[in-house]
Design goal:
Blueprint lengths: L8 H14 L13 E5 L11 H19 L3 E5 L1 E2 L3 H14 L9 H15 L2 H9 L9 E2 L3 H16 L3 E11 L4 E3 L4 E17 L6 E6 L10 E4 L13 E3 L6 E6 L11 E4 L5 H10 L25 H14 L3 E14 L7 E10 L2 H12 L4 E3 L3 H10 L4 E2 L1 E2 L9 E3 L5 E3 L3 H12 L10 E2 L3 E2 L2 H4 L2 H4 L10 H6 L4 E4 L4 H15 L7 E4 L3 E2 L16 H8 L1 H9 L8 E2 L2 H22 L3 E2 L7 H23 L3 H24 L7 E2 H18 L4 H11 L22 H25 L7 E6 L3 H6 L1 H8 L1 E6 L7 E6 L2 E6 L6 H27 L1 H6 L2 H27 L1
Parallel strand pairs: 1-2, 3-4, 9-11, 15-23, 22-23, 24-25, 26-27, 28-29
Antiparallel strand pairs: 5-6, 5-14, 7-8, 7-10, 7-13, 9-12, 10-11, 14-16, 17-21, 18-19, 18-20, 28-31, 30-31
Helix pairs in contact: 1-22, 3-4, 9-10, 9-15, 16-17, 17-18, 18-20, 19-20, 19-21, 19-23, 20-21, 21-22, 23-25, 26-28
Amino acid sequence: MSIAKTYSPADVEAKWYQRWQEKGFFHAKPNPRKPAYSVVIPPPNVTGVLHMGHMLNNTIQDVLVRRARMQGKEACWVPGTDHASIATEAKVVALLQEKGISKKDLTREEFLTHAWDWKEKYGGIILEQLKKLGASCDWDRTRFTMEPELTEAVLRVFVDLYRKGQIYRGVRMVNWDPKGGTALSDEEVIPKDTMAKMYHLKYEVVGTEGQALTVATSRPETIMADVAVAVNPNDPRYTHLIGQRVRIPLLGREIPVIGDEYVSIDFGTGALKVTPAHDLNDYELGLKHNLPVIDILNNDGTLNEKAVLYVGQDRFAARRNVVKDLEEAGLLDKVEEYASVLQTSERTGAVIEPRLSLQWFCKMDHMAKKALEVVENDEIKLHPPKFKNMYRAWMENVRDWCISRQLWWGQRIPAYYLPDGSFVVALDSEEALKLAREQSGNQNLQASDLRQDEDVLDTWFSSWLWPISVFDGFKDPDNADINYFYPTDDLVTAPEILFFWVARMIMAGLEYRKEVPFRNVYLTGIVRDDQGRKMSKQLGNSPDPLDLIAQYGADGVRTGMLFSSPAGNDLLFDIKLVEQGRNFTNKLWNAFRLTQGWEVDAALPFANQKAVEWFGAKLQTTLAELDEHFEKFRMSDALMTVYKLVWDDFCSVYLEMVKPAYQAPIDAETLRYTTAYLETLLKLLHPFMPFITEEIWHELAERTDKDYLCVAAWPKPQPVVGGAELLARMSQALDVVAGIRNIRNQKGLGPNKPLTLSAKTDDVQLLQDYDGILRKLGALTEINVVDAAPAAAVGFVSGGSEFFIPLEGQIDLGAEKERLTKELEYAQGFRDSVLKKLANEKFVQNAKPDLVERERQKLADAEAKITALEQSLAAL
């Protein structure tokens, strides 16, 4: 058999992925003879392309799914994409602008035609890229959050929750994204630390010549929307002003001074301008004191006619002009810098504008309480559990969810307005007309008399239904798929969407299936660069995952990503990790080539029983350890366990024990065991490294059309009689080998230079049982049991026995004595200097305890080295 000298991922990966798909190995369907295992993909934005976070997240999902498939479960991994309202609409708007087309010149239907065209052309890119990674999704089940069936599910839920009183319409202070032109939920707002300016402005007190009330504000551009100035009634500086009026700087409009204990006496000047339209706290204050509301901002963040001044200017341009004019008018007292937090849009990056707006809301308190209980009682387990505290904090302080968005791309809100301004909520226009006639008593109403709400629903209002809707659980709540695959088993996602998505899916699952949607939530960390920055295209610090796959192979990248990514902790990405992954694939390939290059002599006796028995016991111990890591979702630990078993135990030790001498044959029994062990290792590695393992699997033996590693049985731990003793005895033998190799390194003796080993030991049985292994791995020609150290020998201690390597004839004894004498003199001098320092009472009394302890450790190390050197000299 001709085997390529080096492993070439490019020649292998596309071949096996195509075959797996052709054989239907990824497709799952209800099978009462098998336990179900299901995972739903966190649907990437339809605008997205593969990034490092996707690589980590989907590698972990694939490892879990492939292992479950090998365990004999009906493994179903549902892929799909999210329509991503804001992000997609922004992409389409930008694309149209490049063509000279403005959204405002299009009808809704015309715009949506362009949006669907864009989706069809670019929307599936990321899913195709996941195939390059090896993701074993059931591609026949690919879903899209805006496909007709899923859109119907969203509308059904909206109507149902509205009729239950859980959804309502009202004017509330919302987070407004001026760039996106839409409201955002609290979870779509990203706080950013920044340095801001506090402006101290003079408000002239009406009727008192020359007296002014100084008010501190960070937003001077909103003074035209002021309706009052508030002070604390317990603040002696201002009690006399409560009930009086002041003039807004530049504008001159008079507003009252009110008293409220909400105002902090020791912040700013202790006087607060009240602007209910542009600040949530001011809005609450306005309601309490029955103040008017003046909204001076347009949807895009420019000032409107109600501002009177600076009309049409962007809010930040207006700020600069207001400050300039205040300064010129002598109404700006001073400007201070202070540390602040800027609220920004997750989607567009724009600074959020608090704004009163008529929106649709979903009540959260009742659903949140149930969703908290199932996490608290571990019906749903978070991995790592430290995220329970974050989850609890969110759920105990939940606010109603603003679910409407001022966009065209998305599921349109199923509310229909009658000519008199009232509305009905219905699944479609036909049902809406029927309800409208009943509600109004006007049987002459026509469909054309009704106007559907212009807004669409928040993207998360579709994705919170994902684990149910992908199995058509709303269309047919009792269908075979939903009954078999729901609840799903494991969810792999990022901590930043623990509330955005995870908590809401739990709410929806409990509301509509009376069951949790998944059993475990594995929370990945963030992939960061070596400076600790989150990897992103904007920073230019993220490699292209497809370039990495092309250079290092998908298996190398997968293992590289998992080498250092414990659950919930960030991964500091280093290209060396991926290089290590690639080196691992090469190591595995070379081990395979080595075993396949051996000639077999059937007449030879079984020569490696100890080695075979030892690795068999090691393998079974590791299997149990590995299963425990998977059980506890320790994915990095699971990989490292297999990595060490393959690289250290199999390649570096076992193969060295059993491999025949150059061009000599091997016995059939040893080869049979070795091949069987290699097959087992391939099974353990397959979830992590699917491509190279499948390639070697088919190269190892003739396989039937259905005999693929992808669906081979996952190895189960089998108890080995006397296994612990086997492992302990081999460990003792290998420790002796390590002592021999250490002397070779110290004395400059080559790894294959024949040596003699003398042992002063009571454990002669170890030498007899492991004679062949000691000779082979230690390159020994002779092993003797002695009563005393031989002349001119260096020794070491292992397991309570003394071992010696005679050096006469092996090295220049005179030169070695001279070298050891110099080393001894240096060590003694170093020891004396440490003793002198420790004899200094001032040092011992005044130095930090850990510093003194370090010096004492240096002394102990020096003493040990001196003893060893003296023994070596005595032996020579």
